[in-house]
Amino acid sequence: MMKEYRTIHEVSGPLMVVEKVAGVTYDELAEIELSDGSVRRCKVLEVNGDTAVVQLFESSAGLNLRDSKIRFLGHPLQLAVSGDMLGRVFNGMGQPIDGGPAILAEEHRDINGLPINPAARDYPNEFIQTGVSTIDGLNTLVRGQKLPIFSGSGLPHAQLAAQIARQAKVLGDAAANFAVVFAAIGITFEESEYFVNEFKRTGAIDRTVLFTNLANDPAVERISTPRMALTAAEYLAFEKDMHVLVILTDITNYAEALREVSAAKKEVPGRRGYPGYLYTDLATMYERAGRQLGKPGSITMIPILTMPEDDKTHPIPDLTGYITEGQIILSRELYRKGIQPPVDVMPSLSRLKDKGIGVGKTREDHASTMNQLFAAYASGKEAKELMTILGEAALSPTDLLYAKFADEFEKRYVNQGYEENRSIEETLDLGWELLAMLPKAELKRIKQEMIDKYWPKQD
To answer: Could you tell me the pTM of the whole model?
Structure first.
């Protein structure tokens, strides 16, 4: 028999104190029944002796302490998982909002999950094609990797996220076993509609599980949304043997919700007011991605975050960079030039890219052309800076070629729009076309046999 308590002592915003409770545990789900019979859900944030602090998922407006009663359900927040989740849209609490039927659950899973045991991890070493040249060619995404996108307020990270979700695929025999789990955290209604309509327009919805948490939803729901998405991804990857790409946008909204809840609990704040356990909290999410020994499925993660004031040293991008394997950085300067997507190639990095490229994965010339493009673009940017300071006349003919290369590289390689889906072969061939602007003697990072084989034939 489930116990009901009428010992609600006080309400402060979304928090509520319940006294004289027994057997209640941290993170347990509870229901509050109001005097009119309506029910609101909440979860336990803290237990101290026989007193529990719970947080409401909805507003506390209209809550009468004397006439309301609370019952604890004996389990944490759970998600009903099933293979039928593909093609469906859910809210941040895992309930369908697309007008379709409820999910026939194969099982109910605790959304908190567990990070993958390091001893059970398999090394990521297989290529994922996103169709975006700056990622595939220069900062390659590998199956089982965590590769965040660092953006800024007003930059088009939503379009890039939708493009990757639409275009991403694994090559070879596993191509049919690919799925995307997309979690939109703390976004506006317009953004939510944009994502849903984009996926429906292109047919990508059929292999996507979409979770949307709106900006006007409660903060505690925002904290649950990415965990809902990861629970769905774990089920598809490790029970259904699928290769799952998880895209979480925007992690900054998640961290703000965490700060809000922490402040409501009167915890001692850490850097910039964020809770001292922000690193641990982010790691419990990020480390659920990866590959497990003996299991064919994988979870690859692309968390997207907007850096407040474009500051890379802000706690959210700073801590994310420690936990993940690289970062893709969007540039405001390139955005102003009209380059789409405005990926800043130089500071972007994928620490696992060398494991996912080469013969049998992409192409034999991938590593050397990637290194040569980086070197040539860096030289071109230096030449352009010199040109700004000293004038064009001060540059050598080779420096002028590099400056021209940098401009063409941004116009043709980085800039591809949000509708163009380039295969890895097209990306590599485009790289060779650009390198052909330089004298062969300048290609010091590519072996001669590769130059002989792949140098573009002149008409």
So the answer is: 0.92
